[in-house]
Fold Peroxide stress protein YaaA.
Amino acid sequence: MRVILPPSETKRDGGDGAALDLDGLAFPELRDRRSAVLDALIELAADEEASVRALKLGRTQLGEIDRNRQLRSAATMPAIDRYTGVLFDGLAAESWSAADRAFAHENVVIQSALFGPIAALDEIPAYRLSHDSRLPGLRLRAHWAAESGAALSRPSGLLVDLRSEGYAALGPLGADANAVYVRVVTEDGDGTRRALAHFNKQAKGRLVAALVASRARLDDPSALVDWGDAHGHRFSRTQRIGPGGVAEIELVV
């Protein structure tokens, strides 16, 4: 099983890891792609006004440009600790045991606009780049889609895709992948279901925390639904067609 998460715009500063080592990241076949984006982002950081436009920064966010300037020399920390925000608060990774973290490293992937898919404990610096950012001479979706999708789709049991559609487009899985796209919804008193915005991230974080705690190893979408029934996570049993043609089910919260 492999769970695929989106990243977060917000990230912790600092870290006690050595400078970025591209050779140490998961999916080593993506090294050259990562290096190209890294070089483009550092080059962009030399021009403050261009960075503001490309990264959609407010005037109180100019420190993000400094982060990007220092990408090759800054301290690193595990990706699961680097990202912050509602989804990662829901994970509560700071409370995980060493065994939890080891399981997550094998089974949880984060789709980064800068690095492509990375494993939970991959050591990365703080940075600013989103799926819809515009780098000079480099279109992120075209740059990442085929290679990231192929890397993610290697046989590994069920792929549980919790990415937003923007990040899913950076590594589409394809209709033939053993994958399920999870959409979070709420159910009104009359049975009407509607998509959640803010709280869908919290639900995804808690779902992944439970998958890690239970050491879940799932082979197909129906196994995820059965696991949910046993662990207090209610999934629909009706499948639709989700992004890229993969199966889609709803997580009802």
